[in-house]
Amino acid sequence: MRAIVLVGGEGTRMRPLTRTIPKPLLPLVDRPFLQRLLEHLGRHGVEHVTLSSPYLEEAFASFLRAWSTRPEIDWVTEAEPLGTGGAVANAARALGETFLVGNGDILTDLDVTGLVGAHRAAGAVATIALTPVQDARPFGLVELDNERRVLAFREKPAELVPGLVNAGTYVLEPEAMRGVVPGRATSIEREVFPALIATHRTVLGYPSDVYWIDVGTPEKYLQATFDVLRGRIEGLSYARPHVDPSAEVEAGAKLGPLVVVGPGARVASGATVEDAVLMEGSSVESGATVRGSILGPWAIVGARARLQGAVLADRSRVATGVTAMEARVEPGETLPS
Ligand code: GTP
Asked: How far is the CA of 87 from the centre of ligand 1 (A)?
């Protein structure tokens, strides 16, 4: 089976990390998110994946070059952002058979084989994986009939209510995309699926309560990482904390269990790091404290600085002795500027 994986969003909620690194290429402990997604699809028999992104296209080049296993991947150029619907239609042009679509920022143990089986058994034109959430406010609810056909997509609710929401993985027949005007930006969730329902096509819902997280914000990114470290995701198992063999943790540095120290990263003596991800080449200087934070590649936290809830982009820096809550530091910049 073939799949299209959407990797072209700007990841605005994940800035400033996503100024230089597309969200699907952010590390999930020791590998890019996208790699784990491809591995998951491969385990469910997907043989070929098409990727496209109008945003930071060149950032994917080394990932594509290094990829040498199953599934095979290829790249379709998307000169202008086409939205989720336009991007799928663009990548699916050559596909004459049932295919899968996955959002590139979802971490899940979804039974993709079961999803495809349910789609075929129902003869649906589209099948949407659904996940139950306690708070549907950020998502919008999906309403099903007794046979799990989608009746309606409800706007984001104003109150805190539980319900089923779109989990960002779909099975589609090529005809599902026929209404999309080539080259026009369209949302698959807000335009394509509602249009199919309006014309009485069978759009099936596939609810499942397996592990699922939409890695859209720094908080969700850390939660996904901690869930992996705690062994909650199928097929991924690590020591806690996870320290890359090429990283350097000096004697007298303190690391909490929910910490990732990436390749070539360094934690100096007297520093404390808890609930944090230190990406490749980043460093925490002596006596600094870093909690609940993400350090992008080659970011530096100066000696005795204290950070809580910080997101430091590529090659950014926090000066010696600075204390900051929820800091966001753009690529190459220094706090305070
Ligand atoms: P935010 O800006 O923080 O909302 O993140 P995002 O840009 O990733 O948007 P969203 O989470 O809604 O996107 C869902 C999925 O679709 C993600 O995997 C995106 O990478 C992908 N995506 C969104 N827009 C486009 C697009 O125009 N083209 C392509 N190829 N993918 C897209």
From this structure: 10
pLDDT tens digit string along 11-62? 999 999 999 999 999 999 999 999 999 999 999 999 999 998 989 989 999 9
Provide the CA 70 distance to its chain's centre, in angstroms. Answer: 20
Ligand 1 centroid to 313 CA: how many Å?
A: 20
Which position has the token pair 């200087």? 285
Which of 36, 105, 165 has the most ligand 1 atoms within 8 A of CB, as the residue to mutate?
105
Angle CA 317–323–329, to nearest 5: 35
CB 129 within 8 A of CB 119: no
Distance from the CA of 190 to the center of ligand 1, in angstroms?
13
Homologous superfamily (CATH) for 2-217: Spore Coat Polysaccharide Biosynthesis Protein SpsA; Chain A (3.90.550.10)
Domain map of the chain by residue range?
Answer: 2-217, 242-335
pLDDT tens string 82-112: 999 999 999 998 788 999 999 999 999 999 9
Give the ligand 1 atom nearest the CA of 53. Answer: 30
**Minimal-distance CA residue to ligand 1 atom 12:** 9
Residue-wise pLDDT tens digits, 258-317:
999 999 999 999 999 999 999 999 999 999 999 999 999 999 999 999 999 999 999 999
Could you give phi then psi for residue 47, rounded to 5 degrees?
-100, -25
CA-proximal residue: ligand 1, atom 8 (nearest): 9
Residue nearest to atom 5 of ligand 1 (CA): 11
Is 0.90 topped by the overall pTM?
yes
* pLDDT for 153 beyond 80: yes
Query: What is the per-residue burial (b if ≥16 Cβ within 10 Å, else e) of 208-225?
Result: beebbbbbbebebbbebb
CATH number for the domain formed by residue range(s) 242-335 = 2.160.10.10
